[in-house]
Amino acid sequence: MTIRERFLQVSFPVALGRALALTFPGTVSAIGSGDGFLASWLPPFVVIVACMLVFIPVYRVRPTLLRVPASITWLRLVIRLIVCAVITLPSLMVLAAGVAMMLDSPRPDPNNPQDIPLWVFAATYYPDAWAPVATLALTGWTLREKTGR
User: Fold this and answer.
1) Would you state the pLDDT for residue 2?
2) Report field, pTM of the whole predicted structure over 0.85
3) Quick one: CA torsion of 75, 85, 132, 138, rounded to 10 degrees?
4) pLDDT, tens digit, for every residue of 74-85?
5) Long-range pairs for 47-56 at CB < 8 Å and ≥24 separation?
6) CA dihedral defined by 19, 21, 23, 29, rounded to 10 degrees?
């Protein structure tokens, strides 16, 4: 088993932990206490390690999940990752903006420049958090081996 074949399996829990830490910062920051380096870096690190520990039994049950086939070279893997990233980030931005526009209430003062609509925040922040997860999942889906089932 090479590093290339396990690349997506190792990267996916890290990306998922990062996305969860960015999406729920209040919940994640409750893990750490105090000020300084440990209080700011320890909570996201704990979430990432927890995601990695959750995926260990998942990969034991489904060993081919997110595994890169041996016939795929590093160059083809990187090109496929870039193409999937170009597809997922704008798609997530449009999706997040659309959902936020549906859920957003009308602004109280449309002439106030400091009153930023919710969809502007949602179209930039959440896709930035979840794009690596979606990119790795889409790449893994495009690399899956056809088994005939």
Assistant:
1) 85
2) no
3) -80
4) 999 999 999 999
5) 47/17, 47/20, 47/21, 48/13, 48/14, 48/17, 48/18, 48/21, 49/17, 50/17, 51/13, 51/14, 51/16, 51/17, 51/20, 52/13, 52/14, 52/17, 54/13, 55/9, 55/12, 55/13
6) -170
Residue 148 within a domain? no
Q: Which domain holds residue 115?
A: 3-143
Dihedral pair phi/psi, residue 115, rounded to 5°: -90, 90
- Does residue 149 sit within a domain? no
Q: Is residue 126 part of a domain?
A: yes
Q: What is the pLDDT of residues 41-70, one digit of tens each?
A: 788 888 999 999 999 999 999 998 999 998
What are the tokens at 72?
């795929």
Residue 62 lies in a domain: yes
Number of structural domains, the chain?
1
Q: Would you state the structure tokens that stand for residue 58, as one six-digit string?
A: 């998942």
